Amino acid sequence: MKTDKMMIAAIATFGALMFLSAFGALSQSNDNSAADATYVLTVSVTEGSGTIEYKIDNAEFTTYTAPVPITAGSTVVVKPIPASGYVFYKWVTPTNLFSPTLTFNDVNASINLNAQFKDETTAPEKTVLTFTGNNVIWKIGGDSGGAVQVGDTFSFFPGTVITVKADPFTGFKGPITITVDGASYNAGDNFTVPASNATFEATGATPIQNFTVTLHVHGYGTVEGAGTFAESSTVTIKAIADEGSVFKEWSDGNTEAVRTITVDSNIELTASFVKDSGGPGEGSNNGGSSMVIYVVIIAIVLAVICVVVWFLWFKKP
């Protein structure tokens, strides 16, 4: 009877363990499904004639025919392909984007797009934007994406919203001033492409100057940190005393042996070192004076002893 009860208990325990294991696996499965959430890419053409191609991550472009599932975190690129005799005009959804190619990074929601194409004979004429300036690179953001070099032109449908920046070439500095047909423009602001052609001009890029840091030594020690540096560089200089010496100060009065300086002009500094006396105060001679005193005292004591010995010797009966 006792054996039967033990068997029943064992079977019950085994069943409970199997249930817990299955429950755990189910919970694991639910957690994974949450991590692998999917969204949907939906595209439609609401005007004109053309097709849409898309690619997900590193896959090849594929012609869109039906809603496409997208794994969370993917990168999706969509581009319009106009039919013969048509041009791409804009994306109605998202609201009035004129850039043909759209890129969606780290997708975390479904994507819904509506494209419009125009007959070449009725499509609005594009506006030509020209970018000029010396020693700068233009960067076009917003609808257009990408970047253009100095002197390039870009064509947009009127109403396109873009942002424009001009950065100095390597070896040059700003600040850069941007104008559009003579009117001031703040880099990064939204710019709505007008119906007539326009010219962006950038000025203010100047060469970055190089300056020299020269270091000298007065006394016994060495210095580190000299050289030629671009303006506004931060440089660390060091004064290292030889054995038996200590660093005193730099010629500009600074007493930090290791310090940082900002190089905005040619700089010349001298590090001064003095002997390490080993006693109180810089350059103290107390040790030498004490030695002289000791010698004098010993000489006096010896003289007194000699006198006493002489006196006692010659006073013997």
From TrEMBL:
Keyword Transmembrane helix: yes
Ranges where the Bacterial repeat domain occurs: 66-119, 212-276
Domain of life the protein comes from: Archaea
Keywords assigned: Membrane, Transmembrane, Transmembrane helix
One Pfam family named in its UniProt record: Flg_new_2
Residue ranges of the TM segments: 291-314
Protein name: Bacterial repeat domain-containing protein
Species of the source: Candidatus Methanoplasma termitum
